[in-house]
Specification:
Strand content: 5-15%
Distance between the termini: 17 Å
Mean pLDDT: 92
Radius of gyration: 12 Å
Protein name: Helix-turn-helix domain-containing protein
Strand order of the largest sheet: 1-3-2
Largest sheet: 3 strands, antiparallel
Number of domains: 1
Number of strands: 3
Low-confidence stretches: none
Number of helices: 4
Order of helices and strands: HHEHHEE
Length: 96
């Protein structure tokens, strides 16, 4: 598996998407790193506390806003959970 292809595909997709900020890019790259560490599974089960340090974020509010927007814009499928001890599911789309 070409481990850079998902990131390359993401950059190609967001190149002209004015809605995407550097924070969205940092979170997406952090999600890919987390996924790589988990053996390239799809979906991954992750919490804000798992991803924020990788993306260099300190705010859970910013993380939740941006991951929700990545879902809304069609770059991932984000299935949040309400229980604090459970992890949300994040699906990576095969094509951007």
């Amino acid at each position: 598996m070409d481990s850079l292809k998902p990131l390359s595909d993401f950059f190609s997709a967001v190149e002209k998407d004015f809605r995407i900020s550097s924070t969205h890019i940092a979170i997406y790259a952090a999600l890919l790193k987390f996924r790589s560490d988990m053996g390239f599974i799809n979906p991954i089960a992750a919490s804000a506390d798992d991803i924020k340090p990788i993306a260099k974020l300190s705010s859970s509010k910013v993380y939740l806003r941006c991951i929700g927007e990545l879902n809304e814009y069609g770059y991932i499928v984000y299935v949040p959970v309400k229980k604090r001890r459970q992890k949300s599911k994040i699906y990576f789309l095969t094509e951007q």
